[in-house]
Amino acid sequence: MEDIIYKILGAILTIITAFVVGITYGGLTRKVIARVQNRVGPKFYQNFFDVLKLLSKRTAINHGVMQHFAPMFIFTSAVTVLMFIPILHDGLFFSNFSFHGDLIFLLYIMPFGPLGMALGAGQTGNPNSAIGVTRGLSQMVGFEIPFVLSLVALMVQFETTSVTEIVNIQVESGVWMIFSNPFAFLAALFAMFGMFRYAPFDIVGAPAELASGPASEFGGKYLAIMMSSSSIFTFAKLVLYVNLFFGGAENLVELLIKTFILYMVPVVYGLVSPRYRTEQSITYFWKWPLALGVIGMIWAII
Amino acid sequence: MVISPVHYIAVPLLAAFVIPLFAKLNREFVRIIPGIVLLYLSYVSIVLMNQVSSTGTISEVLAGWAPPFGINLVFSAFSGFLASLMTFMGLVIWIYSYRFKKIDDEPALKFYVLFLMLITGAIGIVLTGDIFNLFVFLEIVGISAYSLTSFYRNRDGAEAGFKYLLLGAFASTLILLGIILLYSSIGTLNMADIAQKSHLIPTSLKVSIFILFVVGFGIEAEMFPLNGWAPDAYSQAPGPVGAAFSGIAVKAGMYVIIRLIYTLFDIEGSFQFLIVMGLITTIIAEVSAMKQTNLKRMLAYSSIGQMGIVMVAFGIGTREAIIAGLFLMLNHAIIKGLLFLSSSYLVYNDDNKLISSLSGLGKRLPLVSFLFALGAFAIVGLPPFSGFWSRLYLLLAAADKELIYLIAIILIIAVIEIVYYFRVINKLYFKDIKVKSDDVQKPSINAVISMSILGILIIAIGIYPDLVTSYLGNAADALLDKAGYIENVLVDINN
Amino acid sequence: MNTYFVVLLILFGGAIISFAINKVSYLLSGIVAFIATASATVFFYLNVDTDNFVQFSLAGFDFQWGLNSLSLLFTYIVLGLGTLATLYSIQYMRFKNNLGYFYFNFLLGIGSMMGILFSQDFISFFIFWEIMTWSSYLIVVYNGNKTHKIGIKYMIFSGIGAYAMLMSIVMIYADVKSFLIADYIDYISQVGLSGHYLQIILLIVGFGVKSALMPLHVWAPKAYANSPMGYTSLFSGALSKMGVYGLSIVLLSLLTNFNTGENVSLGGLFEGINAEFIRIIVQWLGAITAVMGTLYALKQNDAKKLLAYSSIAQLGYIITGLAIGTELAVMGALFLAVLHAIFKGALFMAMGAVERQAGTTDMTKISGLVRKMPFTFIVTLMSIIALAGIPPLGGFVGKWLLYEGMITSGHYFLVVLIFFSSTAAFLYCYRILFGIFLGQEEKETINVREAPISMLIPMLLLAILTMVFGTYPGLLFEPIANAMSYIGYNDVVWEMSTISNVWGDKVSLDYVSLTIFTVFIVAMIFLTIKNYKGTRYVTTKDISTSGEMPTENENLTFQLNFFQPFERAVAPLYKRSMDKIYNTIGESLDALFNFVRTIYTGNGQTYALYVIVFLVIMLIFKDSIFN
Amino acid sequence: MDFGQYQNIVTISVYGSAIALILIGLYAVLIKKNLIKIVIGLSLADAGIHLLFVAIGYLKGGTAPIFSPSVVGENVTMVDPVPQALVLTAIVIGFAVTAVALSLVIRLYKHHNTARIDQIKSLKW
Amino acid sequence: MNIVKDKKSQHIVDYIKEFARKNSLFVMAYGTGCGAIEIPPTMTSRYDAERFGIRGAATPRQADVLLITGYLAVKTLKRVIRVYEQMQDPKYIIAFGSCTINGGMYFDSYNTINALDRYVPVDVYINGCMPRPEAVIEGFVALQEKIQRGDADNGKKYQENIDWYRENQMKVIKNWNMPDYNW
Known about the structure:
The complex is a heteropentamer of chains A (302), B (495), C (627), D (125) and E (183). Chain B is an all-alpha fold. Chain B has helices at residues 6-25, 27-55, 77-97, 101-105, 108-127, 131-149, 155-186, 191-197, 203-220, 229-236, 239-264, 270-290, 295-316, 319-346, 361-364, 366-379, 386-400, 404-429, 445-463, 466-480, 482-494; strands at 58-61, 72-75. The relative contact order of chain B is 0.11. Chain D has a single domain, classed as Helix Hairpins, CATH 1.10.287. The model of chain D has no long low-confidence stretch (mean pLDDT 81). In chain D, helix 1 packs antiparallel against helix 2 and helix 2 packs antiparallel against helix 3 (81-112). In chain D, 64% of the residues lie in helices and 0% in strands. Chain D has three helices and no strands. In chain E, strand 1 (25-30), helix 2 and strand 2 form a beta-alpha-beta unit. A five-stranded parallel sheet of chain E has the order 2-1-3-4-5, with helices on both faces. Chain E is globular and about 50 Å long. Chain E starts with 7 loop residues before the first helix and ends in an 11-residue tail after the last helix. In chain E, 41% of the residues lie in helices and 11% in strands. At the A-C interface, strand 1, helix 3, helix 4, helix 5 and helix 6 of A face helix 14, helix 15, helix 16, strand 4 and helix 19 of C.
């Protein structure tokens, strides 16, 4: 009984942490972008206001039941991913259910949210949303290939598919994956560009063309949940990357440092990039990232 | 009255010439007499087949001259099987044509005379033990067949008949030449005697004689380069005649080739020759059938193809293969019979017999179309219809001899058959109806009965092939037992 | 009377009765069909006994009927889906013609599939196989007119497959002198595989056609899409599984278990072929099938055709899994086989419901049906989630097992290929949901209503099954483990709701489901209660289009060229399709055949010349021909 | 009468004319386009065969194969009766075939208005 | 507008809400007149409105503030109404320049409206022709103060007085084919 309470408490704590960190990272990103553009920029906690404001909206419209469900799908997906990733190495509170899932499970639960989101976007009947969704899904096929290649390389190298095990092995041997198989890491890093959808891969939202794409009919509480979910999701993905390639983290500070550094890579890369066309952004991943992934795989097999 | 194989020849021949006399009394006799004759022959078949299975081959001497000098009839399990098959097919075709309108339009009298002569000739070929007699019967078959082919007095009928006649006359010339050479070298015409003495002929001459015979009878048996007449004749002859050709006439020609190879001559390489010729025949015929627009012509090519496969089966030469070959013959007779009979109602009013004119006929002529489809299913060898078993037997026999290429070719051909038969079925059932209901001819009750008999037989044999396999086994044994044949004809009767 | 005979008698008898009774009432024929399948199902499972073998002799061959644990697994698919599909068809086919014909072939199909599963010898296997083929052909062309080409294509490929199989069977008989499958397996285990590869390749071709393996798949999309949907659910769900059944015997019982250390080549054309080589080929073919099936699926505008291509892709996974042959992969493949029957059955039924209610499944013509047909939408949604392999529904389990089986046995690049396919599958999954149910509500579909209850019940049952198997796959693992013991995998370990691989990693599905459902429900409660009064539904015309109010006639539906950017990205893969290749072959053959038949010139004199030339040639070469 | 010295010449000429007839017949059938000529060719070939057959059955100095007491004596060589009997049959058959052929030719001519075989090809392929 | 604040806890919640609303303004810029050109400098480096939590929104569903930047033709008014009605409560309007107040230099044009207030409720007018970015930011700040005070809820006002607004709107818009505002 106590275990269960601990688990529940731990889960809630994890979600809150992820939310806070994710939202803060979002704010920091805006700040960084502003600084690069020679602006003052918003406060780093600006995104909290945004979420709060959206939650406090008095009305919310939806076009049908799927639009109502869509934020739940994405929230569920984000939280579930979080639950099955060990946030901290050997952490009591932050390990959650990470022993009950593995990488392939994570790979499959990750699209759960976007797909639900896509359904909601489809339900709205706004053509922009549907176009955004098709772009997003197409792009997902693009970056998934180098990503999977690098993950398979990882699994082969460590002979396990469990994230927890991968972290443990890295901690025990003291060699991070990024050093033992840099190619796989690079492939995964490229995949991450697509995953976070900063420029030049921001074809889904594409405010100038698609009026924020899938989210264009979402407002109020729906948008709030979506924003916070994607923050959680961002954090979860970062933690996953840290776990896989940076040997996990012993404590929160280490985790924050590692994740933040990692997070800044696509952000900074995006700052200096324009936007790709959709097919370019797909085929982008099938050139160098794919080659890197294959090299990484061969590296791992040898 | 003692039932003997002679009845097979005497009764229909007599009837054929008596019909015109009776016709003076009542026109209806013209139709009824052939039926009575065929029924009687069927009875004879049953009795004789039982007798054969209990006591062995029956040899009947004609005119009191003992073989090798006199003419004799041999009713073995093998020849008896074919004779019974022909009788049965004759009966079915008679039922079908009893009130076949198109024949009624023409003088029915001539039809039945010729038809009975055709049966007489074919059964004579199968039963006779004398090679010149065989030639005579072949000519009977030939002349009646030419006439039946051009039975409709239209343009194309005459053309087909003439082509058939041209090649048939050629065949008879060659066969006669062969007989001359044979007689000049061993001085006998009795088949058992020839079989006994054939080793005395110099090999080169023997082979030449064999070639002459094969080419001559090959014309009748639709062997490849010799079968130019067949598609025309099949497509232009009246529907029941097409069935009679495929079920009766061709079988006779095939029988002779089998006899030549198995009993009369003992020539090295003749089996392989048969396989190769069979394969070529099949391939060319099926390939030609593929693109036909004329339904009857398509069936004709298919028929040729089937005969090619029969040749292959007999070319393999093992007991299993012979069973397969006989089974194929049986199936070919009943299935192709059914196809010809039903198709002549499908293209009843279309002079060009175009497949495209069948469009949607399945709605207008449900039963006929169904039977046609059944026949098509059976002939491409789909279980649970009879065609499947014969093909299986053949393949097993081929596999036993490790003739893998043969299996492959036969099966590829089966795929081709699927293509063109299913094209027709699609036309029948799954296309819009083009024909007005007035334009189609509903089948008469007797036609339905005859086709149903064949259809039921196809399904029955398909579900329970043991119905016929025992007969086939006996027949195969009889064919393989060359010494027994000679002994039966020459020794038993002399005693 | 024996169980097997009774089951077949009920089914075939039911076929004939429902054919005959069609004249009385259109409903009755369907009801008879349903009663026949249902009673056959009930009777069969009451009397099921895997050790009961019946022997009899026909046409000089020994036949043996019985059940092994593998075929028992497949009977679940056939009878279960068959019963539901007949129930579904009663209403689905209500306004169609020729119902007797339809149900006759329907039941014949089910009966022959059961016959295939009962057959313990090759020859009755083949007989039932062919009956299944032509009965399904007759249903493929049921819709008439434009389907006839599809039907012929189907029949040609089935013919090629079946005759390849027949060829193999007769060769086996020549070797073993027995048609019993068990005898053949024994024989192979004694003498080894060398010299028998041709038989095995031919068997694989035979089964590959039915299970739509890559170069032999071209019949499938249109055949699936154009048969009545009630049957297609069975066609794609169960009938294709007969190919999988056969392949699992060939690939596993024969190839996997007896290729240890053996490397004898066949010589000649088949130089270098060994069991491992064949398996690798089949693996890659399966994976390529999966990829190409997916890529073509997402191009389609017709939902039925889309699903048909998706079926091909899914069968590709299954075949790859079987060909890999490790315990996990096989388990995953068999699991997917059952699951595919369930969700694809449900999907085709749902599409049938859409077709019946809205008149078409062309996604460019209809959209926004979700409010009109909510239950159909739910079924589609759940089945699609299962199809995409997203937890917590059943498809995930199969995919997980398959991937783990591949990774742990070292098929890394294959994994990537399969993964690519299943990621791209998300695209068409979304397409089908969006294209039919979401998006703008069109005025053409204003009067559409939900399908009748007797069509919904089977669909919903299947959808619920995907959910159950997603959390408790152990329910299905038990028969699968038994089945695997038949094909040589003893002591398969399984747990009720945990899946684990050989490296010791595991996924606890109950935790997964628990988490997902808890979070989802919490989120739902929160989101629904929050601002409950402020939450309003508006129509799909009320969207932000730069301040414009879209009128009735304005087209806001995005359907054509749905994944155009993606198609551009993978354009090189679309360049060459098997369809085109086969068309070229067909056209050349046509031309050749047309040329060949000009031999028959129509001139009697030419024919006479042939005779003489033939005679002369024979006489000249008589020494070389005879002797 | 003794034809002994001419025997070889007679034999050769009979055989030769038989073969010549056959060849002429074949020529007519294969080369001539006119239907009537083709039918004539067939008859010629038939006649050649018959002649050949009779010639084979002929024995040098043989008498007619009649078993009458007046003729039959010791060491009497008779011509083989079988070929003659067969040839008689064959002639009858050939006659019948020719009759049928001619009737068909007439009908063909009626329908096609020509007797050229290469123009009568409505059934082909 | 007076929001009833009878409980203290309710007061705190409201305070937080309004604080958040104040600090996060998603702007839907309706670039009608010459004022549209003033928006980019306001948002970018020189004046950087993002400091105040002001941010562009792509669609009315996500937006809080509707900027009407200049004169409104009758035709355009229809779209403005539509956009306004699609926004989620609470929602605000900032109107730019003289034209929105009294018609400005187009006061006697046959096809522009003179007083925007008659058709949609305006929270803040920024005067000038056109106002400079500094003025715009000042306007925003004014709006923020108004929000914090709690009397910037014109969405509710619009809803309550919908009949009056509709009447005015229909007076100028002849081909009225808008859907009903359903809350």
